[in-house]
Design goal:
The protein is α+β, with helices and mostly antiparallel strands. The chain folds into two domains: about 120 residues, Trna Endonuclease, Chain: A, domain 1, CATH 3.40.1350; about 80 residues, Orthogonal Bundle (Arc Repressor Mutant, subunit A), CATH 1.10.10. It is built from nine helices and nine strands.
Length: about 240
């Protein structure tokens, strides 16, 4: 059977061609009752079963070109798939998963081909995408937006982001720099940070140390940050 050619080539991934995806994809479609032909018009694969037609676009990986081609085929028929080799490793799965979500939003079906055995797996069926909102994620976004003081980080920044949590930690550290030691409730009132005790107890930034039950001071790391002038970046409009 022609599937074996694709199987042999998988041993050397750099030698795989798009045509090596065709035999397993064709076999998978034929097992479902389709008559399959390759390179019909602009389509890589066309399958027909009675009045039902579907198209598959073959590529060695996801790309903008693949998505553009697949979307263009939707002008011909409703059922359009993209087929790519199965991912490798965790990084490959993360990339595949992200592209899978995009394809679903575009109404495209998705197939992966495990070339070593010729198995084809269907991950998404062509059709309209049903949006599912996440109230929990929206709530977290809005809480962060409302809690952040001012606009401390430019959009598009690739690096340290001034979150509301970090702003609150800076405010606590700035207060302790002057007070020396203080109870969590005192820091909360004076710095205007309701979660001051929790922030100092968690000590994610390493700036705080507990000197007594409920009493905190700057740690050596906090003192160093203070000496460098870093803690003076604490927000003032709270």
């Amino acid at each position: 059977m022609s599937r074996g050619r694709g199987t042999a080539n998988l041993v050397h991934m750099d030698k795989i061609a798009e045509t090596d995806l065709y035999p397993p994809v064709k076999a998978w479609l034929e097992a479902q009752g389709y008559t399959v032909k390759g390179e019909v018009g602009a389509a890589d694969v066309v399958a027909q079963a009675e009045t039902q037609m579907l198209i598959v676009e073959l590529k060695l990986g996801f790309s903008l070109v693949l998505l553009q081609q697949a979307v263009a085929r939707q002008a011909i028929c409703d059922a359009v798939y993209v087929a790519v080799p199965r991912w490798r490793g965790k990084a490959g799965w993360r990339s595949f998963k992200g592209n899978l979500g995009l394809c679903r939003r575009l109404g495209l079906g998705v197939l992966s081909v495990q070339m070593a055995g010729g198995e084809v797996q269907e991950h998404a069926v062509p059709g309209p995408f049903q949006w599912r909102k996440s109230p929990a994620r929206r709530g977290r976004l809005m809480r962060e937006f409302e809690a952040r003081v001012g606009d401390p980080t430019h959009g598009g920044t690739n690096g340290q982001v001034m979150t509301s949590y970090r702003q609150d930690a800076l405010a606590c550290a700035a207060y302790l720099a002057g007070a020396g030691t203080a109870k969590g409730a005192e820091v909360a009132r004076a710095a205007g940070v309701g979660r001051a005790t929790r922030i100092m107890a968690d000590n994610h930034h390493g700036w705080f140390c507990r000197v007594a039950r409920g009493v905190y001071a700057l740690s050596d790391t906090g003192v160093t940050a203070l000496a460098s002038g870093y803690i003076t970046d604490a927000p003032t409009a709270r």
